[in-house]
Amino acid sequence: MTSRYKPVSRLSIIFILAVVISGSILTWFSINSISNLKELTEKRVLEEQRELDSRIKNAAQSKITTITESFKNEINPPYSMRDSLINSAGRYDFITMPFILKKEGQFLYPNFIWSTENTTQPRVSSRFNYAFRKGEEAEFAKNYLRTAKNQYLLCLSYSTTEYESVKALNALGRISVKLNEYENSIGHYEQIILNHPLESNTEGVSYVYYALQQLLKVTNASNFAEISPLIVLSLEKMKTGSIPLNFGTEEFITQVEKWVQENTTQSLEKAEYLNQLITNINSQLQFVNEYRNEMLEILKEVNLGNHLNIDNDFKMVNSVSGNNQNVLLVNANLKNPAGFLIDANKLLDTILKTVDKDDFTFGFTFKYSEGYNLTSSDENLIYTSQLSPYFPTHMLNIKLTDENLINDIVKRRSWIYGIATTLLMVAMILGVVLILRDVARERHLMQLRSDFISNVTHELKTPLTSIYMFAETLFLGRVKSASGKKEYLSIILKESLRLKRMVNNILEFSKMEKGKSEYRFIHSDLAPIIRSAIQDMSYWFQKGEFEIVTNLDENIEVEIDPEKMKQAIGNLLNNAYKYSTKTKKIIVRLIDQPDDIVIEIEDKGIGIPEDQLTRIFEKYHRIEQQENISGTGLGLTVVKEIIEAHQGKITVSSQLGKGSKFTIVLNRQNNGK
Question: How many other CB atoms are there within 10 angstroms of residue 435's CB atom?
């Protein structure tokens, strides 16, 4: 057999060599094209980077023009300049703050009051002044709160100016809080907010801020619905400039933030809107603090023409306060100069989002940097250029998203043929291994079949020899007595049954292998079937002096094939008979359980080694060390197939030298009683 497979091995080696040689040739040819491929790819990348840079520059020009054009169109009636600025800024998230200036560089919007004191003492009438002093004396010196309230009401009736009215309303709001008359205090403070947002006391403290702070303090669950609209309205007016900002606004906004956290837990939508207003006001304060000292100088430089002109009379001011991230668009030709503070990085991000990048072959990423190094890095394929004349300090770096893309392409092309060759070799070797494994398996199966044929021949020879010998004796008339003839005929019959059992096992195994096993299920009583199987073995049990113990529950009827079930039980009994060499005792049980029917066949024989328990149901398998015990190796295989065909299961437990127990479990639900 060895010489038979040598040609196959030689052909396999020749095939492997052919694949290796062809793969090597393909790899060698691919190397010549790799260097050219790298140069061509780098050139294509650079061309796309330049095209992308051009598109970004054009998009930046278009975006700046759009901003200034939209403002120019909106300053025409019916919009005021302030409203036009706010509307234009609201369209773009990169506009940090719109602003309007006086010629002296002070802010008109955001509306911020610089002075902390009134420059002129407000004039009040004598009767208002007398009544107010009486009210303060009653409130603070004598603690006559009701008297004080009446005096302040009298002051309100005497009021002839806005200052007198707001002063009286402020006092009435304060005294109402002390009297726990919160509804009245809310009403007085509401009038101050709605009607007198610009009035301040002699120390320059705005009455509206005092009113708002008092409203924050008196807020509770019962009046929140009444107070919250006033807070919202006040913040909206601060946002639009109707209520001026001052140096105390920042502290007030901090109090509002705390008030929002404590009182708006049940209204997330309102809390979100309030926080938006707070954020806007804080941005105005931050803008004023950062640029209030520089605006006059900026206007002077713009008027001198020191900055780049943009469409619609706007000029671009870069690097304000040393901050290159923010730039100013300023129109100084208006009666009141106006413009926008722009977050350059956000603007550039917006520009990049509008640029069409889908038609490019390669993926690119962008990074902003400062400096004037206009070189491109060939090593990493990074293209650097000035973003736009409007942003002279901002450089745009365009590079491949995957920095190793070129090297990866080269590596892929370098290895593609080698990998293909390797895969072919591996596949071929694997095929050879599989072929050799199949050959080995076929050899093993051939050996098993050979052993099986030898065993079957031996198994068939024994009963046939007995049948022939006893039949010949009878035929020649050597036995004269009737009892002797009957005994010989009985032996011939028993050996025929034994022969029939072996033939049935072989036929059943053959059908099982072909998937053509046939079963005829009928309603049957198990106990008589088991007794019949025992009876068929009675001759050998008596001959071997076996003790057969039966414990069978009666009247257990199930849907089974009686002949196949008898065959399975007979195989197990025959197995117990053959492997019980010393203690010749076999116990057969039939147990009726609520859900299952259990058949147990237990012997006290030699037992089964533990390492072979899982293999005893395999075809042709026999316990090798028991060579003196005959058998075909099919009996247990047939038993397992029959039991599983009945939707049951068979298990075995064994101890070496103490015997084995085979347990058949038939599910009552599957079989039916």
Answer: 14
According to DSSP H, which parts of 383-525 are helical? 405-475, 482-514
> What is the DSSP code (8-state) at residue 612?
G
Q: What would the CATH number be for the domain defined by 126-291?
A: 1.25.40
- Count CB-CB contacts under 10 A for residue 353: 9
Burial of residue 43 (CB within 10 Å: 0-12, 13-18, 19+) is exposed
Place of tokens 């690119």: 364
Average confidence (pLDDT) over 147-175: 93
101 within 8 A of 295, measured Cβ to Cβ: yes
Which residue type sits at 613?
L
Burial class, 387, CB count within 10 angstroms (exposed 0-12 / middle 13-18 / buried 19+): buried
Query: Per-residue pLDDT averaged across 44-50, rounded?
Result: 82
Identify the sign of the CA torsion 613, 615, 617, 623.
negative
Are the CB atoms for 635 and 622 separated by under 8 Å? no
Residue among 439, 578, 405, 406 nearest 34 (CA): 406
How far is Cα 282 from Cα 277, in angstroms, rounded to an integer? 9
CATH architecture of 520-671: 2-Layer Sandwich (3.30)
Helix, strand, coil proportions of the chain in percent (round to 5)?
60, 15, 25
3-state secondary structure of 379: coil
What pLDDT band is residue 629 in, cutting at 50, 70 and 90?
low
Given this model, what pLDDT does residue 1 score? 39
Say how far residue 107 (Cα) sits from the centre of its chain: 52
SS3 631: coil
Helix H or strand E segment including 78:
none
Sheet holding 382-388, edge to edge: 364-370, 391-400, 382-388
The domains spanning 126-291 and 520-671 adopt the same CATH topology: no
How many CA atoms are closer than 13 Å to the CA of 649, on its beta-carbon side? 4
**Which residue is listed with tokens 């005994």?**
487
Q: What is the largest distance, in Å, between two alpha-carbon atoms of the chain?
A: 166
State the sign of the Cα–Cα–Cα–Cα dihedral 258, 259, 263, 266: negative
CB contact at 8 A, 466 and 495: yes
Cα distances (Å, whole numbers) of residue 429 to 5, 23, 88, 423, 436: 16, 16, 73, 10, 10
Residue ranges per domain, the chain? 126-291, 520-671
Nearest to 666 by CA among 530, 535, 532: 530
* End-to-end Cα distance, the chain: 57
Q: How far apart (Å, rounded) are the C-alpha atoms in residues 341 and 568?
A: 95
What mean pLDDT do residues 527-552 have? Answer: 86
State the pTM of this model: 0.52
User: Which helix (H) or strand (E) covers residue 309, if one does?
Assistant: strand 308-310
Cβ atoms of residues 384 and 365 within 8 Å: no
Question: Which among 123-132, 312-321, 425-434, 459-468 has the top mean pLDDT?
Answer: 123-132
Show the tokens assigned to 504: 């049935």
The rounded distance, in Å, linking the Cα atoms of 149 and 172 is 6
Plot region of 32 (φ>0 → left; ψ -120 to 50 → alpha; else → beta): alpha
Query: Which amino acid would we find at residue 67?
Result: I
Q: Are 189 and 211 in contact (CB under 8 A)?
A: yes
What pLDDT score was predicted for residue 210? Answer: 92
